Amino acid sequence: MHRLLVEQLTRRFGSVADVPPELCGFVEAVNRAYQEADADRARLARSMEHASQEVEERYRELRREVAERARAEEALTRSAEYFRALIEHASDIITVVEPDGTVRYHSPAIERVLGYTPAQLVGTSVFAGAHPDDLSGVREFFQRVGESSGAVHSFTYRNRHRDGGWRVLELTATNLIDSPTVAGVVVNSRDVTERARTEEALRESEIRFRTVVETLGEGLIITDPHDVILYANPRVEEIYGYRPEELVGRLGYEVLMPADEVAVFSERMQRRLEGVSERYEMRSLRKDGTIGWTELHATPFLNAAGEVVGTLGAITEISERKRTEEQLAYGALHDALTGLPNRALFINRLEHALERIHRGRGTPFAVLFLDLDRFKLVNDSLGHATGDELLCAVGARLEQSLDPGDTVSRFGGDEFTILLENVASAVDASHVAERLLQALSAPFKVGAHEVFASASIGIALCAGEVQPEEALRNADAALHRAKLRGKARYEVFDREMHAAAMLRLQIETDLRGALIHDEVKLFYQPIVLLTTGRIVAFEALLRWEHPRFGMIPPGDFVPVAEETGLILPLGRWVVNEACRQLARWQRSMPRQPPLSVSVNLSARQFMHAGLVAQISRALIDNELVPGSLVLEMTESVLIEKEDTASSMLASLKELGIEIHLDDFGTGYASLAYLRRYPMDVVKIDREFVDGMEHDARKAQFVAAIIALARKLGLRVVAEGVESREQLALLRELGCDSAQGYLISPPVPADQAERLVHDDPHW
Ligand code: C2E
Ligand code: MG
Ligand code: MG
């Protein structure tokens, strides 16, 4: 029985057993009810339990959901802030524009770029600030953007800044009109004013440079490291014949240079890549296939990183200059008249031949010195033009008579030099000399004239070590000898000549010191007037007392002094010394007419501009009686200086100086000179006096000269009188004066003075 029923029955009846039986049915029903209620309660409790568990579960779920949502919301907030921060701090301006152009949003960057706050511009038209010139462009741009959803477009235009200036903006616009969240055009604008300015400056500078480059006088080519032409300026067309666009993309060395330049060029290209800049000349190939010359200034072309990426070549056309240079070079080495090699080229070839011998790789050769005999006469009688023609013809004949390997040069005037290669002996060289003389022996047809041109040749063999000058000097010495022996001869340089040549060299060296060391003296040789038999004059003759060689006669050193120019100081000394001596004599031996002294004058002195002034000075300084100084000169002196001789002689005559023509009969003996120049005396050379007493022809010659001189109003002095017979004969022929060993050899001044005192009446 149910515990509660038991309790209730106990409380009421004292015990269950005391329950009236009539109630037993009822108690049983209540008991059942109790039991049923208990069962229900248990059932309910169970279901309550279940429900509460479910509620708890739902709650936890809910809390989880809430927490999650909170987290999501927080993330969302953070990301929105993040994007806002991005947009608000972006240096680019982010703008949202309504389809009609109204600005809905501007990011704060607008203020930095255009000076307006976003608030000032939101609601205005996006076109409001556009530069009038750019406005239509901006409109078109937005129209284009509006027509294509989603697409990205770019555009650059100028927009007004709040300060009134303009800013260049670069826009990138995206059409998001269809996007529900944006529903507008998103524009990203960037301030590119600075960049635009730089670009403009760059463009201007590029234009400037391009203008410079295109108008440059020089051709300009830029190539890559493989010599592919990247750029050529218009000037290049004038140089190569190609238009710039024809060259771009082609290989420089293939188009613009002859094949044989390529090897050298590739070396140069290599140097360029190593950073070397250089200037050089090279031959160029033109479009028409002709070859020219260019000067290239090639510089490595660097990129911004400083790496060599090619070559910048500045090109100057120098074909003309090269041609001139070649002509000049030819002119410098060739004789303008005959076209033969000149002295310089000859010496150069001679040097090479000697060098070959020196290096043991050469064969002996010979140097020939050839001089035309009496060429001056042709010039004088037939004119210079004929003379020139003759020289050309002679040059041509010489060339024809020689082997191709030999060199014939015009050395100067009527002198030719010849270099004979492979001549083993003097005999070989002599054969050639004979052949040359033979070739010249036939008459030359020059203009309307037939001219004979005989020559003399000096030969020097070169087998060992000699200097070029020495070889020439030797040949010249041999030529000298040949000339002395007579016409159309040749002579081979030998040991004896060698000794003479050496002596000459020595003389040349020592002569420089002779004046300083007081080694030169004047000797005087008396001249007797034949009508009275008295000494009336002296000829001053130079002597050199050489410390080693003793007394050297003037014939041995005057020519050397002439060649070296030393004759000028030497001659000056002679004039001064002779004048001093003469003045002394005029004071110590006063005579009527006064004594006179003759001084010999060489060509070089006669040509010297200071001569007149110097003589005038000497006359004044020594207070000489006018007319007592005599200058002797030979015809050759006058010939060499024909053009100025007249005026020079006139100036000398104005000083009261007598002019005596020395050595008459030995040189050209051109009577024309006697007439042309203001001579006073003819000195008959001793060659004609010597033996005249036995040789009728000589006597006749002397007689003829005396007669001629008379006619021309000239006096005659006979030189080299050695015998009384000669003296008598000369007196008979009417010769005015005589000079010679018979009377006295040249003697020192003190002895000369004694001669005057003794004066034996010749
Ligand atoms: P020259 O002017 O014809 O001088 C005459 C030469 O004949 C002198 O020779 C003289 O010594 C020589 N002589 C004179 N009488 C006789 C003679 O009877 N028989 C022989 N065999 N010879 C005689 P020197 O002194 O040797 O002079 C030679 C030449 O040197 C001169 O020839 C002259 O042309 C030149 N000379 C001399 N002194 C000077 C000078 O001061 N200046 C220049 N420029 N030349 C000079
Ligand atoms: Mg003389
Ligand atoms: Mg003489």
What does this structure look like?
Strands 18-19-21-22-23-24-25-26 form an eight-stranded mixed β-barrel, surrounded by five helices. Strand 25 (715-718), helix 27 (724-733) and strand 26 (737-738) form a beta-alpha-beta unit. The protein is of the alpha+beta class and 762 residues long. Helix 17 (495-514) crosses helix 18 (554-564) and helix 19 packs parallel to helix 21 (611-621). It folds into five domains: 2-85; 90-198, PAS domain (Beta-Lactamase); 219-323, Beta-Lactamase, CATH 3.30.450; 363-493, 2-Layer Sandwich (Alpha-Beta Plaits), CATH 3.30.70; 509-758, TIM Barrel, CATH 3.20.20. The protein is rod-shaped and about 235 Å long. It starts with a helix and ends with a helix. The model has no long low-confidence stretch (mean pLDDT 89). One magnesium ion binds next to loops.
Short description:
By secondary structure, this protein is α+β, with helices and mostly antiparallel strands.
Task: Show the helix and strand layout.
Layout: H1 3-13, H2 24-89, E1 93-97, E2 103-106, H3 109-114, H4 118-121, H5 132-147, E3 152-160, E4 166-176, E5 184-191, H6 193-215, E6 219-223, E7 229-232, H7 235-240, H8 244-247, H9 252-255, H10 262-273, E8 278-285, E9 291-302, E10 308-317, H11 319-333, H12 343-358, E11 365-372, H13 375-382, H14 384-400, E12 407-412, E13 415-420, H15 426-441, E14 444-446, E15 449-451, E16 455-462, H16 468-485, E17 490-492, H17 495-514, E18 520-529, E19 534-546, E20 550-552, H18 554-564, H19 567-588, E21 596-600, H20 603-607, H21 611-621, E22 629-633, H22 635-640, H23 642-654, E23 658-664, H24 671-676, E24 681-684, H25 686-689, H26 696-711, E25 715-718, H27 724-733, E26 737-738, H28 749-758
Helix pairs in contact: 13-14, 16-17, 17-18, 19-21
The structure holds ligand C2E and magnesium ion (2 copies).
